[in-house]
Design brief:
17 helices
Length: about 500
């Protein structure tokens, strides 16, 4: 009897498979957004790790690589756009499985909210460079959360429209954006390595020189967040020609990110002191460009950052909508999430709902006046939840393939030991930070320096997720909570493929 997720002989393909390895790399790399991560994340990392930021990025790569290998192993057995939601539910249980899908959904919404503000800030920096510093009496301040968010909402609407019109067209655009931004990033960072006046030290690569366990744990969670996004390649499994293409796309993007992050971190530190990195915050890449070249060349890093921000916004919408689609077809979320566009075959209504949620959150975040503080708050909150769902997915791999312990050291290490060690590392980091946040403050304040505030957001996400899961189990009577097993693409009747212009294959009648 075939597995519920395997293709039965003689049945048509489950979905129109038009994506390959290159498309997976484009989606994963755009979602990881190396230029945006470097441009706005180096200041946050420097605040905790100081000059050991390159060491922190290298150290954080190890558990993330273990997570990526777990994804690839699970994906070979059960390709599904629900990825961690489906795998954790089947291997560990429906409640942690639902929370995995929920955390991905909420984490991406938060990411889109603050990345929209970052995109608006970059656009405002461009306008400032062109000599436009005010409009209708309104000061165009790139460091203002309010004005940056207003501009970012326009960008959010634009990328949502492109995401609805089809994954294939979106990946074509992202590939060209990636080529441009990475060319600029490599050229400027390479030049910074050559002419920077800050002396290089091998201690930059020594994580033992980080000041305290708390700084190490906090920096590790932020570094894991910076790598976050490579798993977007697994969200388009049913639209990829083979499961191995999705896995290769995600792993290639992840390794490429390691190289870019290390080169970028060292290059930034060759040009800027730790104080300058922290002070410049989300405008560090702009500062780097102006330090290395005259105008108009100094604006190229800013243009690359804008391309990266737009691409990461778009590539966040795609996996988030498809993850919600996987949950909706199991009836753990409402039917609105699985309504497909009649022409493009994309989960259009869910995509619009996600955009609306991100826009609402972005407007609420205007209460944090400084953009840098907003970014730090969002990164810390998402970092804890990312550590949770990555850890659960790796643990699911170790549980599902525990039989490999009898099949030799190599298979045991690949299928069980590495995933389990990666999961425990992330759980340990998250647990330590939860304890640290809970004990670091004696009052509540809406500030990234307040531990209770930093705990509030992830706690609210999880409590809301548990309430939604309870509704799905006892009101919707979702079968997922009886089996923990997600459905596959055969559960959907697909419309026309907007990219190919041909009808999508329909699943055969049971």
């Amino acid at each position: 009897m075939p597995s519920p997720v395997q293709q039965e002989p003689g049945r048509p393909p489950r979905m129109h498979r038009s994506l390959g390895v290159k498309d997976g790399v484009a989606i994963a790399a755009s979602s990881t957004a190396a230029t945006t991560s470097l441009g706005i994340g180096m200041g946050s990392l420097a605040a905790y790790a100081g000059r050991q930021t390159p060491a922190l990025l290298l150290l954080a790569f190890l558990p993330v690589l273990g997570i990526a290998l777990s994804y690839a192993r699970l994906n070979r057995t059960e390709p599904n756009c629900g990825s961690g939601y489906t795998w954790v539910g089947r291997s560990i249980g429906p409640w942690p499985g639902f929370l995995t899908g929920w955390v991905v959904l909420i984490g991406n919404v938060i990411f889109m909210a603050y990345t929209g503000a970052v995109t608006g800030s970059v656009v405002l920096q461009f306008l400032n460079k062109l000599g436009l510093h005010s409009l209708l009496g309104l000061r165009l301040d790139p460091s203002s959360t309010g004005i940056s968010t207003a501009v970012g909402l326009v960008a959010l609407v634009a990328v949502t429209i492109t995401a609805i019109t089809g994954v294939r067209s979106a990946t074509r655009l992202q590939m060209w954006l990636l080529i441009f931004e990475y060319t600029v990033l490599v050229v400027f960072c390479g030049y910074a390595l050559y002419i920077g006046d800050q002396p290089f030290s091998l201690s930059w690569l020594n994580p033992l020189d980080i000041g305290s366990p708390q700084a190490l744990a906090q920096g590790m969670v932020i570094a894991v967040f910076i790598y976050w996004g490579w798993d977007a390649a697994f969200s388009v499994n049913e639209e990829t020609r083979s499961a191995s293409d999705a896995a290769r796309g995600g792993l290639i993007a992840l390794v490429a990110m390691l190289g870019l992050f290390l080169i970028g971190a060292v290059a930034f530190q060759r040009v800027m002191s730790t104080g300058e990195l922290i002070h410049n915050g989300p405008q560090a890449l702009t500062f780097l460009g102006s330090s290395l070249a005259p105008e108009p060349w100094a604006s190229l890093p800013l243009a690359a950052l804008m391309c990266s921000a737009f691409a990461s916004l778009q590539s966040s919408v795609i996996p988030t909508a498809r993850g919600a689609l996987a949950m909706a077809r199991d009836h753990t979320l409402g039917p609105v999430w699985q309504r497909l566009h009649p022409r493009y075959g994309s989960p259009a209504v869910g995509t619009l709902v996600i955009m609306a949620m991100a826009a609402l959150l972005a407007v609420l975040a205007v209460g944090i006046p400084k953009l840098n503080d907003m970014i730090l708050t969002a990164v810390n909150s998402i970092g804890l939840t990312v550590a949770l769902y990555y850890g659960l997915t790796a643990l699911a791999c170790a549980v599902r393939f525990r039989g490999s312990l009898r099949d030799g050291a190599v298979r045991a290490a690949r299928d069980v030991v590495v995933p389990a060690a990666s999961a425990l590392t992330l759980f340990g980091l998250g647990g330590y930070l939860v304890w640290d946040y809970a004990t670091m403050s004696d009052h509540f304040e809406a500030s990234p320096d307040n531990g209770w505030f930093m705990l509030l957001l992830p706690a609210l996400f999880l409590l809301l997720g548990l309430a939604t899961a309870a509704w799905a189990k006892w009101v919707r009577h979702a079968p997922y909570f009886r089996t923990g097993q997600g459905t596959d693409a055969d559960a959907l009747t697909l419309p026309m493929d907007g990219d190919a212009g041909e009808p999508l294959p329909r699943p055969a009648e049971s």
